[in-house]
Amino acid sequence: MNAWRRLAVLGLALGCVAVAHAARVGDVAATDLGEQVARFLSLRDPAVRTAVAGAALLGVCCGVLGGFVVVRRMALVGDALSHAVLPGVALGFLWNLSKDPLAIFVGATAAGLLGTALVRAITATTRLKEDAALGLVLASFFAAGACLVTMIQRLPTGNKSGIDKFLFGQAAAISGDDLVLMGGVAVLVLGLVACFYKELLVVSFDGAFARASGLPVAWIDRGLMLLLAFSVVIALQAVGAVLVSAMLITPAATAYLLTDRLHRLLALAAVFGVVAGVLGAFFSFLGHNLPTGPFIVLASSALFTGAFFLAPRHGVLVRWWRRRDRTARTRRENTLKSIYRVWEERDFAGEGVTFAALAERRGETLGEAQAQGRALAGHGLATISGDVVHFTPEGRRRAAEIVRNHRLWELYLTDSANIAPDHVHEDAEKIEHVLGEDVVRELERRFRHAERDPHGRRIPRASEIHGDSPSPGGNAG
């Protein structure tokens, strides 16, 4: 097969991660699933211990530094760096025609730093923006690396060199020397981030303030890029150049959905990175020829998917549920207000309101009014007797609060914002559900506990809200 055909085959492999190019953690003779799980969890196989330790160290480094990549919006830089190191890997191998971890580490780091320097030089000396420069460098360096890897494969011992594992990753190929190197890099990364956390925090969120404060922003950026290059290089053995950028971004992006504090983000990203690494090694162990690197990335993506849907503040399903709950609560409160208004129009005579009167007040059908009454009863805000709905003490209190909030806000808009009384109702309809008690107290003090809104309607008193019944005749005006 000539060189062009080899390049074509390599290009096809880069576009589709085939299981044949990403072997499992180790060869296991056991075929029973339970036995394989027990064998992995016992960590009695040296290859499994090495793979798990390497994956955990990879998760810590990529998680912590990925946090800075995400908050500084440097995802494309991380992607370019992960692809730019490939020619350095090949040159490190060619240094002494062996997979020497130190030589490959030095060559890959130098290639990665050269790639980032070229990006900066292109953006500084041409009209090209950073994204275009990143794409240019990423493609050029990766193409050069692919050519070098192809040349190495044509050497007499090339097919046995294991250099192709740097494309897609193979945790089983991690040696003891690789593990020592990964541990050293992990200690270095964690130590420097701990020592210079405050400086990295300031530079990441407010570069202008950092410069004004006299911090060496340029040197901090270079140091961060150097650590990033170190982490990318040690990750190549486990997940490969094709997928390593995902390990920089995905755990940190998952943590970003769960917290707004950088120190928590870094800790969570490290935890997610370790979990993804161990899960990837585990699933790779369960069957023949299952990929290690892609499984690590898939495990990380599964964690992100969980956070995407279920994160307490930013999860899609959680936000949908909150909107649904808020909409239902607003509907119930509007129904409470309508019952109160009907009751008020009767000068607070009687104890209940018919569904017919409620439907007429709300402009709904009788069936819709009855459904809203049942919803109130289900939340302990009302009781139903025949075709009459009655407040519970809690329902009456909340109804008085909503009416008070509405009328106080109308008074505020007409008195302080000089808005005509006939233009304030719609705004008050929205704000009445979210006014906090502190704001209400401030409005009451501002208007000296006014008794009437701009339309002359009575504003419920605090004593009524806290248990007293409204006085008959109080709505005259």
Question: How would you describe the overall organization of this protein?
Answer:
It contains 21 helices and three strands. It has 477 residues and is an all-alpha fold. It has two domains: 41-311, ABC transporter involved in vitamin B12 uptake, BtuC, CATH 1.10.3470.10; 321-465, Arc Repressor Mutant, subunit A (Orthogonal Bundle). The protein has a three-stranded antiparallel beta sheet. Helix 4 (75-84) crosses helix 12 (217-256) and helix 15 (316-345) crosses helix 17 (366-378). The protein is elongated, with a radius of gyration of 33 Å. Mean pLDDT is 81; it is low at 1-24 and 26-30.
Compute the number of helices: 21
Supply the CATH architecture of the largest domain. Orthogonal Bundle
Strand order of the largest sheet: 1-3-2
Beta strand %: under 5%
Bulk shape: elongated
CATH-defined topology of the largest domain: ABC transporter involved in vitamin B12 uptake, BtuC
Note poorly predicted spans.
Answer: 1-24, 26-30
The radius of gyration computed from the alpha-carbon positions, rounded to a whole number of angstroms, is: 33 Å
The top-level CATH class of the largest domain is Mainly Alpha
* Structural domain count: 2
Coarse structural class: mainly alpha
Mean pLDDT: 81
User: How many β-strand runs?
Assistant: 3
Fraction of helical residues: over 70%
